[in-house]
Amino acid sequence: MAPSAQAHKRAHSLLLFEKLLNLRDSASPLTLILNTLEQSAEPLLHEFMRRAKLERAKIVFVSFATIKKPALADIFIRARGKSLKAIAAEITSHVAPPRPGTTKDATPPTQKSLILLDTLNPASSQTPTLLPAFFAAAIPPTASLVAVYHTEVPTLLPTPTQQHQYQYHPDPLTLLTHLATTIFRVSNLRQAVAARRASERSLAAPEWGLREGREGVLVGLGGWEGDGSRDGGDGDGGTGVMVEMEMRRRSGRAVAESFVLSASRGGSAGVGGGAVVMVMGDHPEFRGPAAGEEGGGGEEEMEASFNLGLTEKQRRDREGVVLPYFDAQTDVGGGEGGRILYDMGREDDFDEEEDEI
């Protein structure tokens, strides 16, 4: 792909990612964030809420596992122990357009709303078949729903009395990825950098978390505040989050790209403390060698036990070498420049019939 076309593709993907974060034109009514025990989706959720606050959108935080209300949330709904129907009705009461004759304190019909679900694991384990109806009832036309699903948390198996009911249904993760219009997969930036460095050295990529096969307590990686206190302070890119985007358009075509979401230096956790978003290929840790060597003369040559270059004398000697059968490439007579000059040896068998042909 040409560099100009590649740059245009990156710029288009970055604009689309910004559009999804800013809730522009209802680009994604249902956004699913898949995280792991090692990397939380909190940085991405905070960026959603921060930008929604700047857009003056109403933020409704539905909590299944969060104890304390987030600072940027307007409405905090405790959903633990409630049915999906009751949760949808409570959400609708806060974000639905006001009916004629209601009070003036109701939400204006043109105001955007952001609905956040901190985890979908409890609801998907108990009543997975009710999720489509829940999403349809909880998402009005002026709202966008962002839900988190922990991929490494095991799903509860149905009871023996429910097995006949759910035996032909897909698992919750397959159902959620089918319903979502946009999927974000978050992972730790430090781990991605370590895997890339291992790949450049033709080594096996390191494993983390459950894939390590170790016994003990699994501690998630953080370092979002940018102080280096939780990533060892080595400054190797541990203060960011890798975000893999998969956005499904109405035509059915999917747009996939990877981004790096990192905390801005000196930024705070409030509305003004924004994050720096860039395409993964533009990050210094993932930039190809060709991108850093475009300047040419200022770069140091690769250290090796031999020299691949030619001296001036070697270049002149190479130009003076006469190639075999070089005389056959020149015009000899009229239109005979392509003939082959061949001298028969003593061991060759001369055939008059082949010579005539």
Describe this structure in a few short sentences.
This is Elongator complex protein 5. By secondary structure, this protein is α/β, with parallel strands linked by helices.
Describe the structure.
- This protein has a 9-stranded mixed β-sheet with strand order 3-2-4-5-1-6-7-8-9, sandwiched between helices.
- The protein is an alpha/beta fold and 357 residues long.
- Mean pLDDT is 76; it is low at 222-238 and 290-300.
- It has 11 helices and 9 strands.
- A hairpin with a 5-residue loop joins strand 7 and strand 8.
- It has 2 domains: 3-98 and 108-159 and 169-209 and 223-291, Rossmann fold (3-Layer(aba) Sandwich); 312-346, no CATH class.
- The protein has helices spanning 3-21, 42-54, 84-95, 121-126, 131-138, 163-166, 172-179, 189-200, 289-292, 312-319, 352-356; strands at residues 30-35, 58-63, 75-78, 113-117, 143-150, 182-188, 240-248, 254-263, 275-279.
- Helix 3 (84-95) packs parallel to helix 5 (131-138).
- This is Elongator complex protein 5.
